Amino acid sequence: MTEKELKCLKVDGPDVEIERKIKEIWDGIAKPLDGLGQFETMIARIGAIAGDTRIDISSKAVIVLCADNGIVEEGISQTGQEVTARVAESMGRGESSVCRMAKAAGADVIAVDIGINSKISGAGIVDRKISCGTRNFLKEPAMTKEETLRAVVVGMELVKDCKRKGYALLATGEMGIGNTTTSAAVTAALLGCRAEDIAGRGAGLSNEGLSRKYEVINSALEKYRFQMTDVLSILAAVGGLDIAGLTGIFIGGGLYRVPIVMDGSISAAAALAAQRLVPGIKEFIIPSHVSREPAAGRIMEELGLHPVIDGKMALGEGTGAVMMFSLLDIALSVYANRTGFQDISVQQYVRFD
Ligand SMILES: O=C(O)c1ccc[n+]([C@@H]2O[C@H](COP(=O)([O-])O)[C@@H](O)[C@H]2O)c1
Ligand SMILES: Cc1cc2nc[nH]c2cc1C
After folding, report:
1. 261 - beta bridge partners?
2. For residue 57, what are the CA distances in angstroms to 101, 147, 167, 253?
3. Which atom of ligand 1 is nearest to the CA of 72?
4. Which of 16, 135, 178, 207 is geometrically suited to a Cys-Cys bond with 72, CB 3.0 to 4.6 A?
5. Domains of the chain: total
6. How far, in Å, are 83, 218, 226, 236 from residue 223 at the CA level?
7. What's the pTM?
8. What ipTM describes this predicted complex?
9. Can you tell me which residues the record assigns to a coiled coil (predicted)?
10. CA 283 to ligand 1 centroid distance, Å
């Protein structure tokens, strides 16, 4: 796919008639009107994306894109890049946090090497490596436009493949030391704000480290001011292979009509990039939690999304999104095994709005 083709992509929105029918079905269930609140809306949206009032999300997976970031050499994270490979290998063995949670939620984990800076040992990781990590963006752009585009396409292809395999619901996840700096830089460039407004402590950063992180992000915003003229050039200058790939996953959700459950601040930056690249993509996103990183709340506001989990989580790997899988399963059990007003001989509530 060329840059021009990507920029010309268009998606039809979710099916509004199916969405209306699902809402009507919710109203016939013996409960207060809108009793399950946003969960009713999200289930309706999942059906509207798939184009069916019968909803089956038993087959679900979290796609975790793992990649390294050259900017780590500037001291913006507590650990070095070697940690990315160690955590990815643990994910491949089914042992990292998201694997434990996915097992509890009945979901699969698809761990992908899209740009780890070393060779990964062991099985369980899909190889889609584009390069051995990005470059230090204080010195030169993190990626070329071509690498960025390739990463976006990898994300889109992963969704296509999952759709073919029968997954009805997907979630985004990532792993990469330094990616709360890259995602904050992307977010700041997209929203036109300063690092202090959106960057946080990531995986655990000292006060000194946080000041350095602000300084690094603000310097990059200044350095690439005239170069960051569109979404792809922003991703290339200060983003990462994981963020570009996640952008492709969100776009893939719209193209292949698969609802995508969005995880934390890194996923949110990619969601914003995807919405800016292909307007309307946000309609295919199911928010999960609002990360402790300040960027997350700002992006939710911008996208008009309202995550139901506010647990001050900051783990990544797709953990918040996988938690959301279980909540959606629970809400769906009411819809799928419905007890109607007529079953309990009560008059259905009338909607006045
Ligand atoms: O999802 C989030 O909002 C989130 C917030 C803080 C940390 N993380 C995870 O921690 C790593 C990045 O932290 P850092 O401090 O190295 O930028 C990366 O692997 C992320 O998955 C993720
Ligand atoms: C151990 C560890 C696990 C992670 N998972 C996501 N980011 C992480 C960062 C660290 C340091």
Report:
1. 171, 286
2. 17, 33, 8, 15
3. 16
4. 178
5. 1
6. 29, 9, 8, 13
7. 0.98
8. 0.99
9. none
10. 25
Flag whether 25 is in a domain.
no
Taking only the tens place, the pLDDT of each residue in 270-302 is: 999 999 999 999 999 999 999 999 999 999 999
Closest CA to 277 of 247, 318, 300, 239: 247
Q: Give residue 87's domain range.
A: 56-330
Closest CA to 173 of 280, 260, 105, 290: 260
User: CA nearest 161: which of 120, 112, 102?
Assistant: 112
Residue carrying the six token digits 């990315």: 84
The pLDDT of 218-246, averaged and rounded, is 98
Query: Does some domain include residue 137?
Result: yes
In a domain, 14, yes or no: no
Angle at which helices 265-277 and 231-238 pack, to 10 degrees?
150
Considering every ligand atom shown, identify the ligand nearest to the alpha carbon of residue 300 and give its number. Answer: 1
Do the domain assignments include residue 30? no
Ligand 1 centroid from CA 350, angstroms: 46
Edge-to-edge, what's the strand order for the sheet holding 285-287?
Answer: 125-127, 108-115, 60-67, 169-175, 260-262, 285-287
Amino acid, single-letter form, for residue 30: A
Q: What is the pLDDT of residue 79?
A: 95
Catalytic residue status for 317 = yes
